[in-house]
Amino acid sequence: MPSAERPTNGMTDAVASTNVQVLGSGPAMAMASQYQTGAQAAGLAALNAVAAQHNQYMQHRVAMVREVTAVLPSRHRSRPRRQPHRRETVDNDVIQQLADVISALRKDDTDTCDC
Asked: pTM score, two decimals?
């Protein structure tokens, strides 16, 4: 006949010990998961910021190239491609126009800088 006393064998102690260990490590695991999620979110935010900065840089360069090609005389844009053995000379007025555009772009960059 089974006794009405509570068993005190090693199996009961092992189960109780395991339950205490699982319950005790739950909050630590939750905090670790929260920290890991926060670190992942911060990393993705930094990655998105770098990608946005790169896209803005490329848009700025495309705008500059369009402005420079608009300033250049049309005879330079419509010429057929020259043979590799020929050398092409650039007029002084074209060089001056490019220098003016570059100085205007530099002035514009320093005016809008939020540094």
From this structure: 0.42
